[in-house]
Amino acid sequence: MQSKLTLALMTLALAAGLLSAPPPAYAGTVSLTLTSSMEFGAPGSTETFDATVSAPGTNSADVFLNSDSFTMSFPLTLDDTDFFFNFPLFLSPGQSFTDALFTVSIPASAFSGYYTGFFDIVGGATNSSSSVLASAPFTVVVTPEPSSFLLFGAGIASLVAAIKLRRT
Fold it and tell me: Is the pTM of this model over 0.90?
């Protein structure tokens, strides 16, 4: 009888301890919003993407921003140094942060067109977590330099003038 009473008291004490313990810390997720998901640039230029990273107020603990990963269409290159230098190591529930997130370099040999990529923030509830917390697609539109348009327009105008002179 005493063992049953002892077992019942231990079970009751364990249940009371579990109920009074704080819930496990869960960091949740973050949202990643690029200020502009499309940037325009000429060959030889560098475009900067600014972003806001926010931790929802419903998170029950800090969320760590441990790293990033990305993809970028060739031949453009992405430099994520801004993420590591500018963004905080963690965000508390309800906190947000805005700054330059990364830059994309357009080589002088790049053809005009649309180049796409994705930027992911990796982290989680601890400073060693490695889950993708948020992802943002982006596009870089490579356009010819204005001087190229001017040169092309001057060539067409010269061609039209030469044809008109021949006819007269």
Answer: no
